[in-house]
Every structure is written in structure tokens, then in C-alpha cells.
Amino acid sequence: MTRTLRIATHMPEAMLAPVVARFAKDDVAIEVVAVTTDETIPADLDVEILLTLPWGAPNMADLLSSGVRWVHAYGTGVNGFPFELLNGTPMSCSRGASATAISEWVIAVLLAAEKKLPESWVEEPPARWNTADLGTLAGRTLALVGFGGIAQAIATRALPFDMHVKGMRRTTAKSPIPEVKIVTDLASLLADADHVVVAAPETKATRHLLNDETFALMKPGAHLVNIARGGLVDQDALRRALDSGQVGLATLDCVEPEPLPEGHWLYAHEKVRLSPHISWAGPESHEGLMDRFVENLEHYVRGEALDFLVDPSEQY
User: Fold this and answer.
1) Measured between alpha carbons, how far is 56 from 73 in angstroms, rounded to an integer?
2) Is 202 a catalytic residue?
3) For residue 173, what pLDDT is reported?
4) 258, 284, 304, 314: which is the annotated catalytic residue?
5) Do 259 and 129 belong to one domain?
6) Pairing label, strands 49-52, 28-34
7) Are residues 113 and 83 part of one domain?
């Protein structure tokens, strides 16, 4: 007997065509109800699952009142989601789906900082040939603020470069990567770090985690990389740290606000390398985000526990 599942989504309906085809083989008929973020939701709409954006939508409350039993956010960071509307409805996200792309991007910018790229490229005869003052990743200390799936992927790629890797998380549970030292406070994490990568979720507890006080804990001249959320870094404090030399370089893929307005100081600062939140992008990035939803949909169909669940109280 064919089971019917109605899925409402703020994503383009075409994105779910492979999902519909996949579950038809299991005698599950999926009906996709595509809605825009601001359209009026009919009072008699009856849907079981909601696939939505990680920051929600203006019509979220009406959608959630239409029989939704499970919400999945198409993204990894969900700090902007209106959690107060869930009222106990379980929510999952595509946590970890971008780990490969982001970790490769981080290694690229660490190497760029040490090898002075692109500034070491030449377009005319240089003052000196065959010599340069370049650094190395070997022997450098990498500090990971947060030690979830993305940070672990970064660590896995940093270790073959002979880096010393430390990760900070709230518990002293054993590291899943034996070579990575786990610490539970920023002072222990930052004191000897050459490169600091922000890879934690933004919550009330982590907002402006990097501020005047914590920048002062860093090894002078350290390189800050943010691939998490702009709100974890107090950007006014960052400017002061850059101007004083306490932070030698900031490579920022995430800033606040996004998009960053024209004329913002981050665009022009000589010690800032800015990209428009693209570290997650890769040839299979969208497929990876959708794969998390499909995995959970399989669990849901079989009546199993969902993975990648978000804790509304922690907001990640």
C-alpha cells in the first residue's frame, strides 16, 4: 500500500524531484507543496514535513500550524531561526554537510597566509629574485574554536601538514582525533596559536566570543579565520586588534551584517581578507545539504529517530 507524505518547502520544487523519485521505489508517494516565504498559507493546508530556510520565513508560524510534525533546515547554521515557533516540533538541519568544502577552503587560506599569496606574485622585475621571507604550516599551532564536524574536518587536513592542532569545546570528552588536544577555555586555546579558526555555532553564549579581552589572549600577530558566523566576532574589537598588531591578519568568510554594506571598513583594511560567505561552496555542496534531509526522511519513513537534531534551547 502506498504511503503519502506531504512536504511543504520554501526551496524550489525542482530540488525535490530526485527525492520524490527516490521514495517512489519504496511505495512512498511524496507530494511537494512549494510556497514562497511571504505568501499567505491556506488555513486548510495539511502538510506533515517542512523543508525550509535556516533563518525561517515570515509565514513560518502559519506553516507550522498546518500539521507539521518535523522541520528540516536546508543549511548548517540555524542561529537566525525563530525557535519560539516550534512548540516542541522536532527540527533538524544539514549539519556537517559542508565540512569537506569548508575545511579545504581553510587550508587554502592558511597556506595563502604563510606563503604570502597573492602578494608574492609579481608583474614586473622584483627588487630581489630567488629569495623571499615565507612561512610554513609545519610546526605551527592551529586553534579551533569549536570542535564539531567542520572543525574536525579542518583538523584532519591540517595534521598532514605537521601542524599542532587544538580544539575547544565545552566538555573534556576524549577527542575523536587522537592527535588533537582538547581544551575547554579560550586562554588555553589561544595563548600559543599561530592560526585561530572560528568554527562554532552562534548562540547567546558565543556571540562576540572574540572580543577585546579574548584578542588580548592571543599570540601577537596571530591569524584569525572566521568560517562560522559573523556574530561570534566583535568587529569593532577586531579592528582595534588589527590596528595594534595583536591580530596580524583576519581572513573572514562570515561577517556581520551580511551582505556587508558598501563602504564598510572591512573592505578596505590592509590586514583583512574578505570573501562573501563562499567557503561552503563546491561542486556537490547543494547535493550534500539535501543528502542530510534525505537521510532523515528515510529515518522518518521507517519510524526511526532523526539525526542532526537542533536543540532549541542551545539553538544549534
Assistant:
1) 8
2) no
3) 86
4) 258
5) yes
6) unpaired
7) no
Instruction: Locate 94 and state its grid cell.
Output: 544539514
Please give the pLDDT value at position 25: 83
Let me know whether 207 and 108 are in one domain. yes
Q: Which cell goes with 273? A: 581578507
Residues 6+ apart with CB under 8 A from 19: 30, 290, 293, 294, 297
- CA–CA dist 113, 161 (Å, integer): 14
Is residue 187 within 8 Å of residue 215, measured between CB atoms?
Answer: no
Kindly list the distances between the CA atom of residue 149 and the CA atoms of 40, 145, 165, 176, 216, in Å, as whole numbers in the listed order. 37, 12, 15, 10, 28
Count CA atoms closer than 13 A to 32's CA, side-chain side: 18
Across-strand partners of 223?
195, 249
- Quick check: is 95 catalytic? no
Catalytic pick from 22, 240, 277, 286? Answer: 277
Query: Which entry of 95, 140, 229, 292 is annotated as an active-site residue?
Result: 229
pTM score, two decimals?
0.92
What confidence score (pLDDT) does residue 145 get? 98
pLDDT in tens, 257-296: 999 999 999 999 999 999 999 999 999 888 999 999 999 9
The domain that holds 116 is classified in CATH as: 3.40.50.720
pLDDT under 50: residue ranges of the chain: none
**What's the structural domain count of the chain?**
2
Residue 2: per-residue pLDDT: 86
Distance between CA atoms of residues 237 and 227, nearest Å: 18
- State the Cα–Cα distance between residues 288 and 102, nearest whole angstrom: 13
Would residue 277 show up in a list of annotated catalytic residues for this protein? Answer: yes
List the domain range (segments joined by +) for residue 141. 99-274
Q: Going by C-beta distance under 8 Å and a sequence separation of 6 or more, which residues neighbour residue 88?
A: none
Mark whether 134 and 71 lie in a shared domain.
no
